[in-house]
Amino acid sequence: MTHSEQPHPGPLLSCRALLNGTDWTALATAGGTGESLPAALALLTSPDPLVRRSALRDALGPVTHQNTVYEATVPVALHVAAILDHPVVTASDPGHRADGRPAHLTLVHLLKWLGDTAYDADDACVALEERLYGPGYLDDHAAMRAFRDARPVMFSAVRKFLDHGDPDVRHTALLSRPSRWWSTLRWSRTGPLWPITPAPCW
């Protein structure tokens, strides 16, 4: 994959396929290239919660800066979507909240990041950029176009958590829903016309 090539939207690939099939060194991040991202992304499913906590920073930080969608943002987001239903991610984290409910800190963090990043690429944000830089904004920003094209695939992974048993997970998934995803989704009476199940990587 080169700077000009982005993951093509379609069935959500497994996290293993995304890690091994992406030329991370060729993709730009906020501070350089994505060379370090595969190792950090792989640790997001570590059984050690402290390792996962560090991996969240190392994997998402390089593509989270000033509301910008970078070349590496797309494969990172697709990887995050692919691991949302990983047993380690869906399991509750050690400890409980003050009210005794189990915590799903990793899952909530990943859902929130996906929703925030989708917000940075929604129609309102694009319209603002076009007012500032002209109507050809998307023509000059391949990474933004690629992320917007991949949103239906990512939402298909997010939507299953809208009825999760943990209210914090439900709330975070719900906040990911509105205009952040709608412009690219076609709906039937029961949901998107293309529900996509990610290939498991475990």
Q: Could you name the ranges where pLDDT drops below 50 across 5 or more consecutive residues?
A: 1-9, 182-198
Order of helices and strands: HHHHHEEHHHHH
Helix content: 40-55%
Adjacency order of strands in the biggest sheet: 1-2
Number of helices: 10
Global mean pLDDT:
81
Radius of gyration (Å): 17 Å
**Structural class designation:** mainly alpha
Query: Biggest sheet, open or closed, and with what strands and sense?
Result: 2 strands, antiparallel
C-alpha termini separation:
24 Å
Set out the fold topology.
Layout (H helix, E strand, L loop, with lengths): L14 H7 L15 H6 L6 H12 L12 H11 L3 H4 L2 E4 L5 E2 L1 H16 L2 H11 L8 H17 L8 H9 L2 H5 L20
Please sum up the structure shown.
This protein has 202 residues and is mainly α. It has ten helices and two strands; from the N terminus they run αααααββααααα.
